[in-house]
Amino acid sequence: xxxxxxxxxxxxxxxxxxxxxxxxxxxxxxxxxxxxxxxxxxxxxxxxxxxxxxxxxxxxxxxxxxxxxxxxxxxxxxxxxxxxxxxxxxxxxxxxxxxxxxxxxxxxxxxxxxxxxxxxxxx
Length: 123
Fold this sequence. Notes:
Blueprint lengths: L6 E4 L5 E9 L13 E9 L10 E8 L4 E2 L5 E2 L5 E4 L12 E5 L1 H5 L3 H5 L1 E4 L1
Parallel strand pairs: 1-7, 8-9
Antiparallel strand pairs: 1-2, 2-3, 3-4, 4-7, 5-6
């Protein structure tokens, strides 16, 4: 569950390290983002001389969350951290070329096939 002011790790090589959520897309009263949801955030920490800079406002998709997520088969999945992948503008394409760490398969099922293609492995 990602909400406003949540600090999320950026799990790709676009240049950012930490993203703070400032809006959850999908409705005016939407409070929480889950796996596969798109958020708007600002970069709080970034690598020097990369594409994503500190204070950039951009969109990202959630690929890992600490709160357990119930799957349709009745099982639950939970990760060690909250992580996201930075997106190109308003598209579903990733800005980076690699995704570090595991990614939930729910992200691919929600239409982010290009993000899933560059992930190390799906869980």
